[in-house]
């Protein structure tokens, strides 16, 4: 019994060593990197419904004419259409997480997920680093917290795009941080410089 136990342990050690040797010989398909994210939360002075209404009234649905022009092999036309877009746009109808959890009998909760951005801005990130495809447009949550405070929450583009360590990307991200912040201050009933003109 004791001998069998020892044999099993030895086999396990050998297997672990073999795996380790194999792992150094064959590169892993998986690589991990830890980044620091700065998370911004902007409290609204308004009710959830009034905050949502103010946001929706100032945030147009994305005009996708640029895509038709790209599909028609007209990059110059697409660029002109992109330059025509307002600073920020809504990429999809908001996803309703408050409604989702009614399946558990939890009612009256408010949480919406938006995707907000500008594909011309996205192109200014992507031309320098295609990793930008993970972060544009910006995911934003509009949530009523457990104290009844309505908040916009997002990861600041300066930190998500900042991981690329490219000053050309950083400059665009600083402007995008500000656009999002001004938009949410505006929708939340605070003084704000929204609406901002599109970035040059
Ligand atoms: C969408 O963009 C195109 C190109 O800029 C413009 O001609 C068109 O009027 C826009 N459509 C809407 C609904 O704003």
TrEMBL record:
So which residues are the signal peptide here? 1-23
Q: Which Gene3D superfamilies match?
A: TT1751-like domain
Keywords associated with the record: Signal
Is the Secreted keyword given for this protein?
no
The protein's matches in InterPro entries, at most eight in alphabetical order, are given as: DUF302, TT1751-like_sf
Highest taxon, organism lineage: Eukaryota
Keyword Disulfide bond present in the record's keywords: the answer is no
What's the name of the protein? Answer: DUF302 domain-containing protein
């Amino acid at each position: 019994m004791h001998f069998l136990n020892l044999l099993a342990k030895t086999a396990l050690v050998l297997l672990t060593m073999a795996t380790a040797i194999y792992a150094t010989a064959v590169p892993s398909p998986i690589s991990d990197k830890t980044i620091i994210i700065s998370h911004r939360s902007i409290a609204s002075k308004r009710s959830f419904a009034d905050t949502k209404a103010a946001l929706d009234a100032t945030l147009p649905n994305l005009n996708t004419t640029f895509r038709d022009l790209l599909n028609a092999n007209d990059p110059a036309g697409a660029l002109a259409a992109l330059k025509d877009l307002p600073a920020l746009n809504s990429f999809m109808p908001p996803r309703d997480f408050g409604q989702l959890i009614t399946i558990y009998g939890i009612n009256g909760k408010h949480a919406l997920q938006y995707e907000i951005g500008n594909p011309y801005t996205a192109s200014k990130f992507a031309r320098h680093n295609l990793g930008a495809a993970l972060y544009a447009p910006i995911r934003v949550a509009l949530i009523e917290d457990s104290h009844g405070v309505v908040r916009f929450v997002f990861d600041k583009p300066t930190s998500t795009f900042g991981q690329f360590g490219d000053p050309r990307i950083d400059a665009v991200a600083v402007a995008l941080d500000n656009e999002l912040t001004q938009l949410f201050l505006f929708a939340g009933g605070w003084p704000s410089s929204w609406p901002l003109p599109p970035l040059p």
